Amino acid sequence: MKTYKLTLMYDGGCFRGWQRQGNTNLTIQGILEDTASEILQERVEINGSGRTDAGVHAKGQTASMVVSTSFHSRDFLEQMNKELPDELKIKDIVLEKNGFHARLSAKAKCYEYNIDTRQKQGVFGRKYSLSYPYELDLCAMRQAASYLVGRQDFAAFTDLKEDKSTVRTIYKVEIEQRQDTIKLVYCGTGFLYHMVRILTGTLLEVGRKKKDPEEIKEILASKERANAGFCAPAKGLFLKEVYY
Amino acid sequence: MKTYKLTLMYDGGCFRGWQRQGNTNLTIQGILEDTASEILQERVEINGSGRTDAGVHAKGQTASMVVSTSFHSRDFLEQMNKELPDELKIKDIVLEKNGFHARLSAKAKCYEYNIDTRQKQGVFGRKYSLSYPYELDLCAMRQAASYLVGRQDFAAFTDLKEDKSTVRTIYKVEIEQRQDTIKLVYCGTGFLYHMVRILTGTLLEVGRKKKDPEEIKEILASKERANAGFCAPAKGLFLKEVYY
């Protein structure tokens, strides 16, 4: 058996999220597994570094694949890309040590969220950014962002409470402005369900002065979802890179 | 009567080209005229700097509009953008001297053509670039491009021969490489029907060594469309700016 790491990009607007669901072949995992199984003539399982929601895009999602069939990586990559839909592409494939797992071996992840603050959103970014036509206080947003960094309990920033730990470490939250577009960059050990989108909604509410930057500390301490901001839509979010 | 200049951006893939055609409201001119007429409550005519073909995008198309109704430019721009589809946006509106005409007053135009040379096209640019997965000799392409500059008869580089002059002046043709994407930039006094797309197809054939750079001179002299290269698809082409 050999273990491979795939690096993927996809336009999330064209799929029903990452995770395979029963019969539907409209999920990214489902399409990848079916295509690889067809090419390698064995039942292939492909595990992502995480399950991006429907609508979330990826520039550098990773996935692991364990197979018994021998193949030439470049040929396999070319064949896969030929068969895959235009909106899903394998950027790279590398052989890993056995035991490698895209999710369990991951050390950190970076996400980006794009916001267009113009009165009317630019036509070329409309499927890849949130239209938020308001004046934003970036200074307040940066102050709020600084309180998110570190190892903390992010229970207030998720829409799914399981019996698992909600403690995560955020390494950095950066706010970059480029003309009429604002990019929020999040890097951390991992993120809870909807976490990046709720963090974004909360920072935007700070930017509009609906929330005070200092409130972030209280929201974190409260562990109450209701205290955090709105869940920003999927279409502005990109999984940028997974680090091992 | 007052004359205004509109600056527009649109995703050409969503419309049937610029020019109003009978009843269809799927053309850019048709949608703009109908929306402006509704808002201003008078029959408004809007004339573009040129008729972009179906599928061609614009980052800075211009159009002139002569109206008798008085209005506040900012309010009109906001109202228009509210009513227009997401894929069409007015970037700016300015009052011009009477007699201004978007096409007749134009001094020069710049177009961009995007080419993705990866084996499989990037998923986010797939509607805005040509997938051309070949190794290209940029040096040969730049040499060929240099022969296009100047005041010349471009009869060989158009798909529509009318009884009009086919002489145009090209100021520059630049070839920019960014990782796996190549951008061709064309600036000139004006361009014939399909001219930028045929110039692009011809330069790409030079890049693949199907044509010698020196052949450009012969193609120009021949005035024969059949001697030039293929007409590159509309989706890679952007009207970038019109100069007055």
Q: How would a textbook summarize the main sheet of chain A?
A: 10 strands, mixed
SS-derived structural category of chain A: alpha+beta
- How much is the average pLDDT of chain A? 95
The run of helices and strands of chain A is EHEEHEEEHEEEHHE
> Could you give the distance between the termini of chain A?
21 Å
Care to describe what's here?
2 copies of one chain form a homodimer. The first copy, chain A, has 244 residues and is an alpha+beta fold. Chain A contains 5 helices and 10 strands, in the order βαββαβββαβββααβ. In chain A, strands 1, 2, 3, 4, 5, 6, 7, 8, 9 and 10 form a 10-stranded mixed β-sheet that branches. In chain A, α1 (28-40) packs across α2 (73-83) and α3 crosses α4. The longest helix of chain A is centred in the N-terminal third of the chain and has 13 residues, at 28-40. Chain A is globular, with a radius of gyration of 19 Å. The model of chain A has no long low-confidence stretch (mean pLDDT 95). At the A-B interface, α2 and β4 of A face α2 and β4 of B.
In short:
The structure is a homodimer of 244-residue chains. By secondary structure, chain A is α+β, with helices and mostly antiparallel strands. Chain A is built from five helices and ten strands, in the order βαββαβββαβββααβ.
